[in-house]
Records
---
Amino acid sequence: MNEFSLGYRIHIDFILLFLILTLCSCGLVILYSASGQNIDLVYSQMVKLFIALLCMIFVAQIPPANLNRLSLFLYIFGIILLVLVMIFGDVGKGAQRWLDLKILRFQPSELMKISVPIIVSSYLSSRFLPPKFFRVIFSCVFIIIPVFLIAQQPDLGTALLVAIAGFSVIFIAGLSWRFLLSIFILSAFSIPLLWHFMRDYQRQRVLTFFDPEKDPLGAGYHIIQSKIAIGSGGFYGKGWLNGTQSHLEFLPERSTDFIFAVLCEEFGMLGVLVILTIYLLIILRGLYISYKAQDAFRQLLASGIILTFFVYIIVNMGMVTGQLPVVGVPLPLISYGGSSIVTLMASFGILMSIQTHKRFLKR
Amino acid sequence: MDLFPKDRVEFILKDRDSESAIIKRRVYLAGLFILVFIILLLSRVFFLTVLQNDHYTTKAKENRQKILPIAPIRGLIYSYDGVILAENKPTYSLEVIPEKISDIDQLIGQLREIIHIDDRDIKRFKKLSGKKRRFERVPLRLNLTENEVALFSINRHLFSSVDVVEGFDRHYPLGEEFVHSIGYVARIDENDLKNISESGENSNYSATTHIGKLGIEESYESFLHGKVGYQKVEVNAEGRVIRVLERKAAKSGKNLYLTINLSLQRIATESLGRKKGAIVAVDPRDGRVLVFVSSPTYDPNKFASGIDTQLYNSLLSSKDKPLINRVIQGKYPPGSTIKPFLGLIALENGTSNTKKEVWCPGWFSLQGHEHRYRDWKKEGHGHTTLDKAIIQSCDVFFYNLAHQLGIDRIYAGLSRFGFGQISGIDINGEGVGLLPSREWKRNNMKEAWFPGETVILGIGQGYALTTPIQLVKATAAIATNGLLVSPRLVLGISSQGEEGLSFISDNTENKINLKNNIFWDEIVSSMKSVVHEVGGTAWRSGLNAKYYFAGKTGTAQIIGIAQEEEYKEEEIPEEFKDHALFIAFAPVKEPEIALAIIVENGGGGSRTAAPIARKMFDNFFMNRNLISKE
């Protein structure tokens, strides 16, 4: 690979693109079955993916240095939007997340998934690493403000992902282990406090997580049915379009948050291995890009993005398999849904931009 | 411009390589971290899909496969002559599972736009919703017209939790005439559910909505009901059936043939007309009930389709008490119909014989008492034998006879004829009447038995109360020289689609053995003279009959008449008029039918009750000339 290759000229990382397209194709196949063979839904998802891919290509053209310069502006813009959502936002599914811009409905919290790692990377990389104590605290403030606003909507899933995006950057920047340990202890103590601030439905989710059988027709229904779907799949699965749990509609939200259960039911353990391998390859490519990036800002941003992507996967799968509480996190690039696809693709665009905007020093 | 400009000096001093090394170490670490989590996740998936596969496969199957019970079709009921008395009519009803509805009022509002639902429907729906099995459908509207079914079908998609259910409604074509014998079915209530589960019939009744509540429908429930079938179906999460996997048809209930002779029943019903009372006729040889009439009556079809409270209350509070089954529950003083039985007891005990005469001056007094027990014939019957006493129904003779027998022997004797006991007819709810004894009086009235009470028992007054079914059973015993058979309404049972009847023959038989069989003949001969000898109390009813029959009239007083007062029928209000009674059997030789007739407030037995018996016998024997044979 060199500065004159096609990828470098059009700022596309073909390895990453190939993996993403493979994953999306698999996702469409699963979605067709999960939606009850609703081809219109699949077309709609294809359109969304196409728009998101265009978005990715566009973002990939922006040199990382510009992102670094724009970081504070992006961040403040995002915060303003979040405040606007609090005041004017549409209520959907019991939570206030959407901003209706007449032409398109838009979740400002999605923007924060990108702008938080950018500002933290930008801020921390402006000084010598590892960061000093007060700089870590200051980064935390950058993270906590939007997280707090998003949690207020309430959108626990996105808030969690935004926080993860920010903190993973701090971790990569070389946060001292002593600090990490104290944070860990502190958060353990703050759980009761957190409980106090939770909404009723959030508490319900946590309680249900610990004992789903307690309310088998209510809050526990999701997790019980999801486990039945996964468990009944076996190693080879029941075959495409043959999942009884999903096709007879026992599995709720099967085309969105619980699509992983459909994968397990119809393609079994084998299908999970294939999908996880593709995910792992994307992550490894991301880590490689981070590893090879030319300055601290790029390194931090790349690894922040890829860690967030990983957390996405693990939280969704953990939830569907009954190991984590039910938080509304979709399975990236497979679940049906608009806003988060665009954000995801945009972040892949950043990765591509980091990989393809390199200064080659003449030796 | 940089928002966070790097400090020039620091930047120069800063070792770019050491900074990069820190980050690279952390990236390695993150990769390791990710690997660990992915392995953990995979082992979880492995645990669920491979290790627990059997468990979850079963659960998935349980989820989608449901076993739906199929209700059996209830057996039909026919009269002896093959006329259908209880059938199943297909109906369509609009049914809802209340557990699946969040706002029932809103749903009703929407449904009302296409189908008429009135307030009574809603009231019944709410009442039924309260007492039912979980996830059982409750009817919101009954008897939908075809038009309404079509209308609903078009709008079906708007009401995911409402169904049009095709079912069968029990229908009684001759409803009022047979409600007291056949009874009716009604919706299974909490009480029935308890009984069903106690008898271990839960699964057999899992699809059944109605159960026999009264009469034959109740007592033959186990024959009529049939055996539940099932279908194994695949359902979706909403419980809607996607396809049928397996099916086992329900086994229909057995059809019943009654012993009731429809044309005879008709005659009896018409003869009684609007009067209150009871007519019951049996075949004395085997206890088959030929006629079973209790008046007034009511329409059982209202109960089968879910009676509303208002109608039920009006039936319940009606002063004519139509809900009372007078044949088995009506309690009447036997009046003079007791006399042939007392005669038999006296002959058996030797306190009387056919020669012994009693002087009847028109009244009777106990020694040392002023009180005069009056005869119905003011001037008296003069010299009276037992034969004459039965023919003319002489009260004085029987006052005397009862006094001589004493309460203990009367009690023992009448008990042998089944008085004071249930007859054992094959429907429930039978009353025992009342056969008084010293012991009974001590226990119930805390008083000793008075001799005067024995005296009036001689003419069937006082404490004694009998049900018409007891009376006919005892009459049949006289007809057959002592054969006591429990009356039976069901002749036989046939399975659907099978030829032939299987007869029910578990009648309990008892034989009354008298010391001398001639006693029977003597009493029967007197009873024959009651109708066939001029001067007999019912002689007009026996005129020109083409057969001989034997009978005894009775008139049961329901108000006491003071010592010096006279019974003036026209001055007494209807509800205090005497009950008219008549017992009879025919032909005298080898009797084929025995009956008991009670017409409430009918006045005298000879005038009101006996002519009904004649009409019935005439119909029963039709053109058979039995006299020439004798």
---
Amino acid sequence: MDPARFTRVDDTTWRIEPYGAMRVPAIVYADEDLIRDMDDKVYEQATNVAMLPGIVQASYAMPDAHWGYGFPIGGVAAFDPDKGGVVSAGGVGFDISCGVRTMLTGLKVSDVLPVQNSLADSLSRQIPAGVGSKGTITLDAIDMEAMLAGGAQWAIERGWGDARDLERIEEQGRMVGAKPECVSDRAKERQRREMGTLGSGNHYLEVQAVAEIFDAKVAEAFGLKQDDVVVTIHCGSRGLGHQIGTEFLKEMVMTAEASGIALPDRELACAPINSEVGQRYLGAMRAAINCALANREILGHYARRVFEHFFPDHDLRLLFDVSHNTCKVEPHVVSGTRRDLFVHRKGATRAFGPGHESLPEVLRAVGQPVLIGGSMGTGSYILVGEASGEQKAFSSACHGAGRAMSRHAALKQWSGRKIMDDLAAQGILIRSPSTRGVAEEAPGAYKDVDAVVIAAEHAGLARRVARLRPLICIKG
Amino acid sequence: MSQAAAPVANTARWEHFPHDADVGVRGFGATLAEAFEHAAEALTAVVTHAAVEPKMAIDVRCEASDLELLFVEWLNAIIYEMAVRSMLFSRFAVRIEDTRLKGILWGEPVDVERHAPACEPKGATYTALKVAAGSNGIWSAACIVDV
């Protein structure tokens, strides 16, 4: 995008003043190079979101923003139900509650290196990943309802998790307000054999090393030290979320028209929060959040079993589990008044600052861990939410490096086999059923994750705590 | 693991086109139905470049308020069958009457070794959605698929 199209507020704040049907401004947080590298579609999509009814304050895009569906990926928008605000299936996305969890192992890099190869092989055997992979869990109708209502709490009750995790999962592991009866039979059918599967695309399980500490005090509170080994899982609500997204997108296109909502793009399909469709979507979407929370808890359990085999004296403790594709009701202060808003984060991570009431006591003083997935080669970050993020973007930050190149272009440029060999030479072991999938996820196809998190820090959204480098990556 | 060459287009029938995060599928055909069939081949090519044997037939039906929405319904019907049956499809037959579609999908169960599936389509989107006949009379049907 041409930076000249924006009003530059400061080095990392770029504003589009309202024009045409925009109800509020659009604000992109990024440095100038990231802005230049962003597709013009981000400008168009952030602008379109600003046209939706009931939007509050501004339509935001995070430093890793890229061309999405209706909303940009990296988009944040809050809606007020009392002002005709809407909920948008496109604003949440197909992979409802896709997110990241990071678990502490209590191990050092030197503990893991001697078994790195066999650990990688064992994880790739135990973690069902990719198309055609088979999970070991099949849900009957009763289990399905219980899972959709119970989330990670359900998984733990069934023996696939650790009750100590709950306080470190968003919503304490169970999203309130889930309505399994609002989830279609087709969506349930798509999920019947998918619990405890990783999926494919950019989803992964990584064993990572703490490569750099930026904030020693917060790192200590998070339990992170130089050369510590952690396990990070990135995945979502699998087929169930995809099907719910698909079905409600279709329904909302029709009902938006009937409600008199002019959609600048059909993908922005939405319904008034206070409407039958809006409420039904929220019930189904919250059930999908529970599905994602349960799924990550189960995958965490599988990772624990593998680590237990290799390191019987260590247990994996959850640092945090946070989603980046959701719509959540949250109180936010707007123009001096505290209001309950429906905050959509599409490829954006919730990032509560220190003192936030929803954080567990052990983290409250320092703020929420914000888990940022990078690419296979370049590593990931752990940030901490900043109090200033509340005013900046309803306490939201980036979610990953963000793609810089399409899969199509990546496939033309790289060979998966060569990427795996090059990364192995750097001490990073990749295990994937598909070398083509690896090529599509090539490190070079992503933006510079360092630039993205530095921009998030400069913008006051979240602050760097630690950088992680991959040791093992299991990809679907 | 197979390292398939990268056919990103079967020029006469279908092509993939780029999107930042995902992939676009576009089918061409002498008729609307043929464009839908060829776009379905492009959808399979998102997942695998390996041969898929047409061993089993699955019937699907869909309906929408216009042809573009019908195209998304068609791709989503295939994605659903791929997901719940853990199958890949290689041959397609489509009949369209007004905005109602009857389709047959021929394929086989996913064989991870042989098909080396690269990624899993989550859903067809309304982004870059276009169904139209060109001035040369050739139909095309396209949209972005979230993977």
---
Amino acid sequence: MGTPDLTKGATAPVPAAGGSKKFALRGSGGGLSKNANRGAVVLALLFAVLLPFLFDPTSGFINDCVLALAYVVMALGLNVVVGFAGLLDLGYVAFYAVGAYSVGWFASTFYSDASVHVGVNDFLDKLPGVHLNFFLVILLAMILCAIAGVFIGLPTLRLRGDYIAIVTLAFGEIIYRFAVNGDEITPFGDAYPLTNGQQGIGPLDKPQLPFMSEPLTPLELRPWYWVALGMVAIAVLAVVMVRDSRLGRAWIALREDEVAAASMGVPLVKTKLLAYAMGAALGGMAGAFLGFFATTVNANSFKFSFSIFVLSMVILGGLGSIWGVVLGAVALSFINYWLIPDVLNTVPGKIGLDFQLDQLSFGIFGFLLVIGMVLKPEGLLPERRRKIELTEGVGTDQSLEGSRA
Amino acid sequence: MATTEVPPTAVGKPRTRRTNDALRETLSKYGLLATLVALPLYFAIHDLTGDQGDLSRLGENLVRGLSNGSIWALIAVGYTLVYGIIELINFAHGDVFMIGAFTAFSLTGTIGLTLTTGPLGLVFGLFLTLLITMVVTGSMNVMIERVAYRPLRNAPKLAPLITAVGFSFILQNVGLLWRGGSQKSVPNLIDYDNVIFHVLGVPISNGDLLAIGVTVPLVVVLTAFITKSRLGKAMRATAQDPDAARLQGINVDHTISLTFLIGGMMAGAAGLIYALYQTSVSYNMGFQAGLIAFTAAVMGGIGNLKGAVLGGLVIGVIQELADNRIGGQWVSAVVFGYLILIMVFRPQGLIGEQTREAG
């Protein structure tokens, strides 16, 4: 096996070269437009915060905005697993399910035999069942999802590439089956089934925010919007911080070459599991929020197509690129919830064709996916590192094929 | 930047690694077998000791499972060939199968096959239907490859995955517009439930004969084609190393198109069997079928033709056992549970793999 001197000599130049190149690029690209960039970000933030005032509080558009923001958090979570750590997760819907069911379990009258009330308003205090505070439920959902993420991640540790995709896909389908048939599973007695089967769980508690007299309702969508926006802010901040930390670099090392990363001392098991846990926690946060927002938990919403929907956001936006993923999530959810059903729906009727466009909605969606990928396979806003790889041939396909797989 | 020390334990590692590998090898071989045999064995004991008293019910499960499995086997062949050659999980493949079932369903009506058609006309008509269906789905699969995968040959690995999903959605929408959103029942042309003879007390029906009669010849011809013919050799060479194959004068693009053609044709044949055997089709059936067939391909060892067929049959039996004994609503949970166990015990599948990507 070589002496320490030999290994040092062999490995040292490679990271040094990579490092200096990266810094050089960052230096040349950043200096010129830094102030302009910062200004643009502040303006965009201001616009995002004030946007709801332009619309009616019950408008469908704000509704779609809230959904889009929740999907941004979802996509950011999946991006940690797929984009940063390079672990292709096709069962992300599992965390949506666990997150949404956390709301069903901890913030509804579903377990009416129990009586647990923590930090809720007077109205909920009198109802039977488990009722926890909104933020507590979200926190619990995140913790449960992180545990589920680690659990799902464990069998994939030895596997690579597409095999990880297969195992996570299988877990996603199994969790969907448990959601649909969970009324048959009663490990804690007949009064406490796992889920309510096809009927779903509802109504869920209306979230009570601090400093507000009334709980959130579907009639006033602005507070929902701001809560969702806050979640996005937290998620973006967390993801940016982690990406630039030791852990984030370990993920990227893992993605680029697992063997090299391991030989440089990256602990594979811990690093992979942390990626799963963080991605799952973000998914759980968004899932719980979507549960609250929908006011019911519908078992049939936890299908494989959801995983694909979120994965499309990540890939179409730009794998590994945070702003790309945000853009991809906003774009795809608006296409799905606003453009196709609301805007384009009546177009065929106007030009004399006898059908509604929403019959074609997933065909159009699929068409857009194909077009988007064929025209821009690296995504709308590709990550800087990946762009370099693609344009300059640093690690061309053949070498990547072997390493990323 | 990189100031990681060499871990002091590195010297002691190789020996433990070797014993671990030996242990893992045994565990993976027998662990997988034990997992697969567990379910039938449990029900065999259950039948023998319970009210049943004999194994006829298990035999029925087995026969029905194998018939169903032959459908999955035909679809799985398409997955495994495509994966072997371009390492893509072709998500649109299940929907190609669905279009195949729809085509077969429509063609039987167009050709004029009804419940009163005589046996000779029926065999001839179905053969014609099979041929046309296979041509339709095969050429459709080639077209999909041309439009959605070929432009992305040099793109990041996940890009064609998304276009595959996109095409899956498009095909589902085609099915939806073609036949509407509800389940459509197919006329029971072959009288699939009609028992012809018994083997060891287990009834064999028309449907089972159709499934075997279509699948076995197709698989035999396909195996011969891939192992014996020049084009088959080109396919195997491309699967092993596309660049080296190109250097040997093989037209890689044509070879890939051929692979998609074969995969699509097999899916079309599976669609015909499914339509006649299950006598109902719906626009969203391709997705579930695709997942199950994909599981079969993985179970056999993805990239491996024999493995896909074996995996399909095994999945068929598991599925039938789960459906008959545990309850229809748990079928996919059981199937996917098996998939995870196989991935844990033996990621390279039952037969082993012939792809570039190491498990």
---
Amino acid sequence: MPQYIVRRLFHAIPVLIGVSMVVFFGMHVIPGNVAQMIMGDKATPEALARITRELGLDQPIYKQYWNFISRAVVGDFGVSLRTQNPVWRDLWLAFPVTVQLAITTMLTALVVGIPIGVWAAVKQNKWFDNLAMVGVLIGISMPVFWTGLVLMIYLGLHLDLLPISGLLSDSITLHRITGLTVVDSLLTGNREALVDTLRHLVMPTITLATIPTAIIARITRMEMIDVLKQDYIRTAWAKGLRRPYITYYHALKNALIPVITVTGLSFGTTLGGAILTETVFGIPGMGRLAVDSILFRDYPEVQGLVMVASVAFVLVNLIVDLLYAWVDPRIRLDQEVEA
Amino acid sequence: MALKRLASFFMTLPVVTALALALSASAASAKAPAGKTLVIALSSDSTGLDPESVENNDSGYVMAAIYDGLVAYKPGSTDVEYTGIASKCDISKDGLTYTFTIRPGIKFTDGTPCDAQAVVKWWDRLLNKDNPVYYAKRPGIDSFVPDTFHNVDKWYTEGKDKAVIHMTKPDGSFLNSLAMVWMGVTSPTAADKYGMEFYKHPVGTGPFQLVEWVPNDHVTLEANKGYWKGAPKLDRIVYRVIPESSVRALELMKGSIDVIADITPTDALTLEGKPGVTLVKQPGLMILGVSMPCKTKPFDDVRVRQALNYGVDKESLCKYVFKGLATPMNAPMPPSQWGWDKDLAGYPYNPEKAKKLLADAGYPNGLNATLYIYPAQRSYNSAGGPAVGQAVQNDLKQIGVTITLQQLEFGAFLAKTRSKDFGDLCLAGWSGDNGDPDNFLGALWRSDTLINTAHYSSMPFDDLLMKGLAATTHKDRLAIYKKAQKVLTDDAPWIYLNYATQMRASSSKVHGMVLNPTAMFFGMDKVSKD
């Protein structure tokens, strides 16, 4: 197992290099330049030239890339052209926020999606199954942006049940330790902040979880239907075992492998930045940082974001593979496949 | 076994989660902090709080409460008065020497006295490149310092209470520039202490001081109880970053925030008349037009340019495209700019006259042209590039001018339209910086300025601009700029479209807030909240 992990991490290196090159050169292909973005309408040729020179943007592109990658390998992504902060600092502030949102999103997707999928499979072609699949279709189809605004209007404004945006109310002071407001509230014993931040997370979580919930429900249903037709399930019925036992002990556990895959992929994608949700709800995570940085042509920041998101994605998928081996003893990750 | 545990976990968690959500949702919903805290919603985060080294509006909104200038704008106006750090300013007859008398007893919030020596040290930080804390040592910043102080060659104290600045050429816009939020006086002690990091540790003499800045989330200021004009009525101001405009409107309606700094026309119309919301509207310090290449056929003929001006229905544009939140242009400066000539007729819609002018110029069958637009809204163009472009295209079609629209992302748009050989039409607009006429007329149409996308060049006009800067009395400058506006209107390098309406939405519980044409939050010491 350790050898497997090391091998997987080693294979990730060319992936990360490739990703960094695609993004770096892609950013430079986009028209407009950061000097122009800094100055906006007030640009003069002298000022544009000065800023371009000061930021090292007048150097050949391959040299700019080498400057970046040679520092990135030791964790130095340079200084943000927009915020003037070290990129790692901006990422350190934004990444935990997105991690928190990704965790609440995936937990919600799993706790809602799996039971729906299971029950839809058990009641296949009955009213619940049909209703569930219509719900899945709606969930997959609804734009995140629209869902968020509808929730804000009804739950936030008309019913006044939940706060509309942000992560904490202005009247709450929370000492930052990890950057995850829920964890920091628990660590500092700040009950008021805990309740407040959980309330702020409800709507963005529901918004972001809509699509993965629908996907998980659908895949769970599909796998459960397949598993419930297996011979060993028929044997279990023949032995007189009760339905809940058959469904949850014998069937569900064998249907979860693809669910783990989807969960891993969704989690990794969300870690890269839930752009729309974070923008709509005013959450200062990776997604918002990405939007602001791309629009500003903030090359170092975008590069840093992409590298962090890529590493996160690689690690999440590695964890997913390790989970396969943990949940299904038949899977041996370190064994060669025999022809 | 592991799978069984996993499966059980996911089947019981929904019940627990639902219960937790129900309990948490029953708590009272968040309102704006009670008492004397004002919450202002911004569309994006500040990029720095050193007034001389940042230029974006969201930073300016925060800095207006932290710093004072040597002089200040009259409330709600671009006229300058001596209600800043300087009690008066004597200008020499040749317009080259400005002697500021500094009020006694003012202190920065770090305790440093704000006297003549501090002011001169502030100037030195801005103007002396050998100063160890020279403001521009951070790479990649842009500033109004070069434009404001471009003619300055000496700065020194005279006695204990006078700070003197000398320039090589007169600059009649100097006092207006000094009133900008970007010319806030900074503490020399703090500048020495923090060096290049000063932009994160602002220290001024203003009514508020920085408490906390959480990037991309909020900035919190607290009252400077020892403020020289008297303690502010508020205890705190929180500037919250809410990028989405409709969300800002929802928050204001809910009562979670008190003021929206930047409001879109759509949201303004939604909020208008809503209980508990006050919407302030006034002509902004902004203009919008279509720039025409004055050195490229057929637009090198003034009759063609005038024809296109007569060919666009600005009244309808303002009413339907801008939803009544703009007024047609009659002059190249907006009404909120002192010196605006209200008597100029401009170019009212007259398609018959437009056709006649085109025919006289040799284009009886019309002509073709390309109009470059950008996709999004700008502060001076709340309808957005495509909407305005299409409206202009439709109107000009009626007089035989076929317009092809070319849309470019804004950065690419600027790069394209600011190039020396650009020879097409393009959307053009401007937000005033310092409330001085030269900031419009000179910045946009002086022969040698990059922003002159029309490549307009007129010796008589340039001469008037030079005289306007050299004049030392307000009365003389008024007369000169009146002439300049007439010349520019007649020469029509732009299709003059409209002046955007400046708006600010706030809770009805907020009192004393006066909207300045530069949009900055000046006078926050006088703002109160029920």
